[in-house]
């Protein structure tokens, strides 16, 4: 931080030509926001304030607009997460079909609370809003893979396969 409280760190994408390629695919720079945030996440692991500032400059938006987007999407993170991010949908269809029991089981088994990461950095458990798969509820998403009609037994098998 500098004397004005601003973050002095800067972020630069490793491959500026890839940034230009992404920008060239959209009619306006702001439309490239999500692809750029995904690219930054792939490079840095999670979204930091320097990344928000860099992306804001690139898409010509205020950093608060970038943060609004980051805070909206459950696949974007502002803190380090585990190797496997276990997201359990909490909307009505998943809740009715046992999502709360799945969260409780996961947290007890991994000795963490929702939003936390195991001490070994392997698993993060997150309660999230709709993952868009109500017909196959309850849904658990592991990184980008959906695991449908989840039960405690299926969840235990899934955890074993990830360990």
What does this structure look like?
It is elongated, with a radius of gyration of 18 Å. The protein has 163 residues and is of the alpha+beta class. The N and C termini lie far apart (39 Å). It has helices at 16-24, 33-44, 49-59, 63-72, 92-96, 99-110, 152-162; strands spanning 84-89, 123-128, 140-142, 145-147. It has a 4-stranded mixed sheet, covered by helices on one side. It is built from 7 helices and 4 strands. Helix 2 packs antiparallel against helix 3.
Helix content: 40-55%
Q: How many helix segments?
A: 7
Number of strands: 4
CA radius of gyration: 18 Å
By secondary-structure content and strand pairing, the structural class works out as alpha+beta
What sort of overall outline do the alpha carbons produce when their principal axes are compared? Answer: elongated
Quote the average pLDDT.
92
Strand composition percent: 5-15%
Low confidence ranges:
1-6
Q: Give me the strand/helix succession.
A: HHHHEHHEEEH
Note the gap between the termini.
Answer: 39 Å
Q: How are the strands ordered across the major sheet?
A: 2-1-3-4
How is the biggest beta sheet arranged? 4 strands, mixed
């Amino acid at each position: 931080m500098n004397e004005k409280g601003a973050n002095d760190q800067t972020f630069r994408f490793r491959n500026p030509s890839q940034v230009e390629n992404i920008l060239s695919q959209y009619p306006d720079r702001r439309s490239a926001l999500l692809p750029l945030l995904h690219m930054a996440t792939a490079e840095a692991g999670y979204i930091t304030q320097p990344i928000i500032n860099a992306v804001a400059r690139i898409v010509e938006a205020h950093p608060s607009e970038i943060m609004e987007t980051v805070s909206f999407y459950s696949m974007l993170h502002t803190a380090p997460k585990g190797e496997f991010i276990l997201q359990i949908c909490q909307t009505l269809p998943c809740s009715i079909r046992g999502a709360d029991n799945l969260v409780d089981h996961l947290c007890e088994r991994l000795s963490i609370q929702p939003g936390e990461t195991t001490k070994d950095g392997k698993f993060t458990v997150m309660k999230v809003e709709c993952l868009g798969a109500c017909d196959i509820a309850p849904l658990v998403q592991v990184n980008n893979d959906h695991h449908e009609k989840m039960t405690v037994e299926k969840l235990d098998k899934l955890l074993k396969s990830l360990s």
